[in-house]
Amino acid sequence: MSKTRLLTSVATLAVGAALALGPAAAAAQEIVGLITKTNTNPFFVKMKEGAEAKAEELGMELRSYAGKYDGDNQGQVEAVESLIAAGAKGILITPSDSAAIVPTLQQARDAGILVIALDTPLEPADAADATFATDNFEAGRLIGQWAAAKLGEEASDAKIAMLDLNETEVSVDVARDQGFLTGFGVNVNNPKDIGDEDDPRIVGHDITQGAEEGGRTAMENLLQRDQGINVVYTINEPAAAGAYEALSAFGFDEQATIVSVDGGCPGVQNVKEGVIGATSMQFPLLMAAMGVEAVKLYAETGAKPETPAGQDFINTGVELVTDEPAEGIPSITADEALEKCWG
């Protein structure tokens, strides 16, 4: 064989080997899964952005999934099963049903996959290896305390509409609802149950699915019970936007103060424009980035995140946002919040 033909054959073999190794090299990249409740809620869109950026920075492959709607447990079950089959190193999940998803997540843990809950704790919380979340009770308490301070003496005669998430009463829904009521000064009977309070100031509860349309419908339903509603609690800012539309349609937008939780840029803009009186800002991008970092560390060392003593989650922070600050309640303005919304 001539020297030229030999070199050509070696080169051909080298190219073939490189092509053969390509898929293997890609497969060797650690897989981290992100499963959110939906892919339409801006909160989860920002969470995905945070996970994508951190995964790229750390040289990991992110595979993301979402339910078809808020409450789609089966969709999340199928996503977990896909990640188990793919050999993922870790799964980050905002559970649609905190209890129903646990058996499937246990299969993932049994397979050596790190499971981290984001924003919404599992039931029980230790069904995940760790939880990165807002203190949702505190988020609710802050807006409840602020609403009571804004009404002053009139708080004792308030008429309150409670716009919650859905019928399943997932942990984040319960925590925000009960936190708001506690902050406002309403006695909650069972802190793990929505709607069992007997305070006459509560006009009623309705569900929104965390969506604008749901918020509008829920607000319309509660206004049929009592058109004197002057305080509206909403599970999140899309629901708050829908509630405001309904109030405006009835001519009650100046009558009622809306409070919410999220701190997304559109919601903060609504605070600035007076649609929402106050909101509690959380940090989903940070949650997701911390989750990906934890999976990377676990893949390299086997170390799992350590939860502070006496807590069942790792707190990613919350800040009250309002342009009408109340004495004794720390807050930031809408302009300040727009500089950091969902960082």
Question: Could you characterize what this model shows?
Answer:
With 343 residues, the chain is α/β, with parallel strands linked by helices. The chain has 2 domains: 10-133 and 284-312, Rossmann fold (3-Layer(aba) Sandwich); 136-281 and 318-338, Response regulator (Rossmann fold, 3-Layer(aba) Sandwich), CATH 3.40.50. Helices cover 45% and strands 16% of the residues. It has helices at residues 3-28, 42-58, 73-86, 102-110, 136-151, 171-184, 212-225, 237-250, 265-272, 284-301, 334-338; strands at 31-36, 61-66, 90-93, 114-118, 130-133, 160-164, 202-207, 231-234, 257-262, 278-281, 314-315, 319-322. The strands form 2 sheets. A 6-stranded parallel beta sheet has the order 2-1-3-4-5-11, with helices on both faces. The protein has a 6-stranded mixed beta sheet with strand order 7-6-8-9-10-12, with helices on both faces. Helix 2 runs parallel beside helix 10 (284-301), helix 3 (73-86) packs parallel to helix 4 (102-110) and helix 7 crosses helix 8. The radius of gyration is 24 Å and the shape is elongated.
